[in-house]
């Protein structure tokens, strides 16, 4: 669904007012929306689902590569053990996406857990 440009701008402005962790959680939820849409289409099978899957997996890959990049930054304030744990999870996600038929339910669950963790104390 496409939002009217004025509504899309208003939505982005409203999200920008949220704390950074809430914004990050929202990104995970948005990516999950694409993965869920694919899963709902005959379990991700078929031509139409295939095209959506390519997009959803690409979005998920970009998200996790960005997460890894942020966590590898030496100026990141998170404790090193936590950063290492999240990087490990991210690499598991990236390996899953390399499979011929990635487990979409697994990817969705990991993203849900990340969003939930980011939402704590917001």
Termini separation comes to 28 Å
Helix-strand string: HHHHH
Structural class: mainly alpha
Per DSSP, the total helix count is 5
Radius of gyration: 16 Å
Largest sheet: none
Strand content: under 5%
Query: Any low-confidence stretches, pLDDT <50, length ≥5?
Result: 6-11
- Overall form: globular
Kindly report the average pLDDT value.
85
Number of strands: 0
- Roughly how much helix do the residues carry, as a percent range? over 70%
Number of domains: 1
Q: Name the quaternary structure.
A: single chain
Describe this structure in words.
With 122 residues, the chain is mostly helical. It has one domain (24-119). The protein has five helices and no strands. Helix 2 runs antiparallel to helix 3 (47-72) and helix 2 packs antiparallel against helix 5. The longest helix is centred in the middle third of the chain and has 26 residues, at 47-72. The chain is globular, with a radius of gyration of 16 Å. The protein starts with a helix and ends with a helix.
